[in-house]
Structure formats: structure tokens, C-alpha cells
Design a protein that fits this description.
33% of the residues lie in helices and 22% in strands. With 384 residues, it is α+β, with helices and mostly antiparallel strands. It folds into two domains: 176 residues, 2-Layer Sandwich (Ribosomal Protein S5, domain 2); 178 residues, Alpha-Beta Plaits, CATH 3.30.70. Helix 1 packs parallel to helix 3 and helix 3 crosses helix 4. The protein is globular. Bound molecules: ligand DP6. Ligand DP6 binds next to helix 5. InterPro entries: GHMP_kinase_C_sf, Mev_decarb, Mev_diP_decarb, MVD-like_N, Mvd1_C, Ribosomal_Su5_D2-typ_SF, Ribsml_uS5_D2-typ_fold_subgr.
Length: 384
């Protein structure tokens, strides 16, 4: 049997955003946040780890390139400390160095939260390697805040906590993967070469300079978190959608109120926002919710029954020459597109959207036992 442990882990897309830290080092947030975990069969990180006496140092490879081991040091040390306390493995095993190889199955250019799936994967794999029993969400959080929410499937709530040591800052599941089986997600990847301020730096500037931030974290988010949990539990899509869009808009408004401002949305993002509002206005209650992270790509939450119309509308408004425009799950388009005449929306220039990914809510990290590791028998990355 191989001594390599391999795990796949999902990304998550927040519907109540985490933005701002109360402790930089421990990655403790200023506010609670809530996200949907996306199907790892469509988008995931995969990580293989192994420890051997002959390894000269800890090494980590990410998407084919070796990285500085500083990115894993915090999580690795914490897990080794727990293993030592729990005496879960031999002392000698703890002294061996580790090799880690990790890959995302989605293009990094998609600008999606690969650090969340990456750290959820790393922590789950190391916890298995060192046989520890611990709250993996709190360990993943040390790598990247939002990673703590990728430890569970379904919809997940990250509790900010108030304790200085962070012991009350962890994620819990709001509902499991099967609770709202009709929920779907369309990720619209916007062609954009601009390098945006990283989340960590953006949060720091915003927390330090935005006068609106306090109002968001202390007043608005706590109210929204309660209503969002209720909306999810009751499968109330209209409330879910309204809260999601309002929180995304407020998050970006707060970013704009930083000094200097953090600008993540671009013209195409705003065109998508307008389109979704125009579409929703055709109905009594919203059918689609947009949300944007620290970049211009849109994530649309919607129910399965509305997917054909929404996909046809997007393809109509944002014409594409990409033959592989829709990736992910098999996706039907509307047979009758007459409703498009009711949306007085001009067709945009060609190829403003690079492609879209169609996916759904999925499970948390999974240990892979089919032997398909990323490290070879010598513990080095497989040649591609
Ligand atoms: C906009 O988790 O990437 O996606 O804790 O500094 O690693 P660090 O930040 P990160 O921030 C994610 C911010 C967000 C909103 C969210 O996912 O809640």
C-alpha cells in the first residue's frame, strides 16, 4: 500500500462576504460569512502528500511549479504539534520532511478562489497523514480565511468569534449538500488581464481606511447572516437572492470607500449586474442572484429550472466565438427564446465573456483511494 495521501477539495463562493481581519496572523475575520460549496467534480484542488526519512527538506509544488515552503509552514507546524500532543503517529515519523504536490483542475486565470480549495485540501491531506483528530476548518483558516468554509459541503457558516486566540472562529454546516438539490451556479469568466489588489492587501486597506466598514461588519452583516441562514433552511430563493446581491454590492461599495479605493468590478461586471436586474424585473421575485469576489468575474446562483432561459440570455447578450463556451455540467438551453424580446438589452461586443462554468452545490473534501496520486513512487511530482 502507498504511503501517499491524496485528497480533492472544493471551492466555495460566499453569499455573505468575509472582508477584513481582526487578527492578521491568525486570520480571524471581522465578520461572520456564509458560502455555498461547489461541486468538486467540476472544479477542485487535488493534493498529494507524503513524509519519508530520505527527504532533505519540506517541499511543495503547485500547478507544476515549486513554491516557497513558507506558504505551508503555519498549517504544517500546527498539525505536527497536534499529532505530537495526540501521539497519533511515531515520534520518528514527525521528524521526517514532507513532499506536497497540488493542482487545480480549473484555470488559475479564472480568478476563482483557488486558495480556499487549496488549503482545505492541504489540511485534510496532512490531517490524514498524521492521523490527527481536530477541527479541520480552524486549521484551514490559518492558511487562508475562506478555506475554512471549504471543509464542509452544502452551505457553510464561518463564525467570526470574539476570542483573541481564535478558538471560537471556525466553520459549521448550515445545511448539507442534498438540502437544496435544485440550486445551481454559473460562473461567468470575464476577459480581464488587469492585476487586482490581492484579497489580503485589499482587506487591510479597507479595514484601515473605510468609514463604512464598521457599519457593514457591526450592523448589516449580523442581520443578514440570520436572514440568510433562515432563507437557506427554508429554501426561500427570493430572500436568498436579494440578500446575496445586496451583500455583494455593499462589499464592493465598502472596497470603493477605501483610500486608495480597491476596485474589483469592471464595465463587464456592471453590464452583468444590469442584465440580471432587468431579467429579474420580468418576474414578481428574483430568479437569479449575482455575487462578485475580489475580481470582475460573476457568480450567479439560480435554480435548475431557470438555467435554460438564463444561459440563452447570456449567450444572446454576450456573443462568443468560443466553441467551448459552456464548461462543467451538461447544460440545456431554452428552446423558445421569445422572452428575450421583452428584455430591452443591447447585444454586447463579441467575446466580452471568455466562457462560463455550470456547476452545483457539492460535498466537502474527499480522500481519493483509487491510487491516482500526484507524487510518484519516489515522492516527486509525476511527469506530465
Ligand atoms: C472576497 O480567504 O482569500 O473571496 O484570509 O487573506 O487568505 P485571506 O483571504 P481570502 O479572502 C476571500 C475574500 C472574498 C470573500 C469571501 O470568500 O468570503
Amino acid at each position: 500500500m502507498s504511503d501517499v495521501v491524496t485528497v480533492i477539495a472544493p471551492i466555495n463562493i460566499a453569499v455573505i462576504k468575509y472582508w477584513g481581519k481582526r487578527d492578521e496572523k491568525l486570520k480571524l475575520p471581522l465578520n461572520d460569512s456564509i458560502s455555498g460549496t461547489l461541486d468538486a467534480n467540476v472544479m477542485c484542488s487535488k493534493t498529494s502528500v507524503c513524509a519519508r526519512p530520505e527527504f532533505k527538506e519540506d517541499r511543495i509544488w503547485l500547478n507544476g511549479a515549486e513554491q516557497s515552503k513558507t506558504i505551508l509552514q503555519n498549517c504544517l507546524q500546527k498539525i505536527k504539534d497536534i499529532a505530537c500532543d495526540q501521539q497519533s503517529v511515531e515520534k520518528e515519523f514527525l521528524s521526517w520532511n514532507v513532499h506536497i504536490c497540488s493542482e487545480n483542475n480549473f484555470p488559475t486565470a479564472a480568478g476563482l478562489a483557488s486558495s480556499a480549495s487549496g488549503y482545505a485540501c492541504l489540511v485534510t491531506a496532512l490531517a490524514k497523514l498524521y492521523k490527527i483528530k481536530a477541527d479541520l476548518s480552524a486549521l484551514a483558516r490559518i492558511g487562508s480565511g475562506s478555506a475554512c468554509r471549504s471543509i464542509y459541503g452544502g452551505f457553510v457558516h464561518w463564525h467570526a468569534g470574539i476570542k483573541p486566540d481564535g478558538s471560537d472562529s471556525f466553520a459549521t454546516q448550515v445545511v448539507n449538500t442534498d438540502h437544496w438539490p435544485e440550486m445551481r451556479v454559473l460562473v461567468l469568466v470575464v476577459g480581464d488581464s488587469k492585476k487586482h489588489t490581492s484579497s489580503s492587501i485589499g482587506m487591510k486597506i479597507t479595514a484601515k481606511t473605510s468609514a463604512l466598514m464598521k457599519y457593514r461588519t457591526e450592523i448589516n452583516v449580523p442581520l443578514r447572516v440570520t436572514s440568510m441562514c433562515d432563507a437557506i433552511k427554508q429554501k426561500d430563493f427570493a430572500s436568498f437572492a436579494e440578500i446575496t446581491m445586496k451583500d455583494s454590492n455593499e462589499f464592493h461599495a465598502v472596497c470603493l470607500s477605501a483610500y486608495p479605493p480597491c476596485v474589483y468590478l469592471n464595465d463587464i461586471s456592471h453590464k452583468i449586474i444590469n442584465l440580471i436586474h432587468k431579467y429579474n424585473d420580468l418576474f414578481d421575485s428574483p430568479k437569479v442572484a449575482y455575487t462578485f469576489d475580489a475580481g470582475p468575474n460573476a457568480c450567479l446562483y439560480l435554480l435548475e429550472k431557470d438555467v435554460p432561459n438564463v444561459v440563452s440570455m447570456i449567450k444572446h447578450v454576450f456573443p462568443s466565438t468560443n466553441p467551448d463556451f459552456i464548461k462543467g455540467l451538461p447544460c440545456n438551453e431554452a428552446k423558445n427564446v421569445e422572452f428575450l424580446n421583452n428584455i430591452n438589452f443591447k447585444q454586447e461586443n463579441i467575446d466580452l465573456l471568455k466562457y462560463m462554468i455550470y456547476t452545483k452545490i457539492g460535498d466537502g473534501p474527499k480522500v481519493i483511494d483509487n491510487g491516482e496520486h500526484l507524487l510518484n513512487v519516489n515522492g516527486y511530482p509525476l511527469e506530465k
